[in-house]
Design goal:
This is Hemerythrin-like domain-containing protein. This protein is mainly alpha-helical. The protein has 18 helices and 4 strands.
Length: about 325
Amino acid sequence: MENNLNNRGIEEYCDRFCEIVASQHFNNNQTISGKEILELQEIRQINLFVIKYLLSEWTKEVTKLKSPYFNYDAPEAKTALKEFMNILSRHISVEKEYFMPLLKQATRDTLLLIFSPYDYYMHLIHDPENQELSLKELKRMSKYVKINNNLLQALIGKIEEQGYQRISEEKAGKLLNEVFQNIQESPADTDEYLEVFSRTLPLTEAIIYGESSKTNEVAQQKKPLPKEKPVNEIAEDSVSTINDKHSAEQKPTIADSHRNRKIESIRKHISINQRFMFINTLFYGDEETYNRAIDYLDNCEDKRSASLYLASEYPEWDKESEEVGEFMELLEKRLA
């Protein structure tokens, strides 16, 4: 299933594209904040990958904390460190020098995810630092992947079906091949993404695959999956999610069942990264406003009251945004 990608062309495009995107911000700013990262690029997948890589670097730094004098594994220390991470996540400030490598990696990975998802996921399961792949890490990763996400969900489902919590790269590769062989969806139309990228810097399939590639045949061979679909309007009697859009087309997996399982509290199921994202993009960067809304929704008894509350308090929410989609998915589970 490997494709002859034009790696040099992709790297050169990423360099030029990222310089343009970064200059638009850093020409007038010394640093970039978390909120500005999430709003940086029209292709929101790039923004989410930057946040993921940024927080991954922070996690690596935290894991290095060791001392012969202090016990960092003490429950109180772990709780304090988690709160410290929460505070820092609301005060992201990155200079251009350190931001550019994150942006380039995010852009390259987004291009692969769109035009050659097989290559992207093969690179994802190949970790030079670890001989085994963690199911927990894959699930965490799925929160950031919004384009062709159902391939990752299918892989997670297969790993769960076989009862693995950790799996070797070789076994994961075999399961990924099985997923691709059984994919029923038609190849995604990449023209929309070519157009959006080209608004910043012209992009063609020849840049991705090389001048001699038969791109239509390549696309069929690689079978990229449909991109994410926007959430519905918030209706009075229905709280729709992105997953609802695909339910009629996809066969349910173990991952689907887990994802759709009813939860008792929204607050307890919001990850650190989601909390940061929701506060900054949906609640105006105001933690008090966020807490007030979560408390209200956690006490709602039905979808009608929750829908009326959101329509009244937050009519300006972009119903097609990634953030609203994830928030509504949690609300759907709470009121299922």
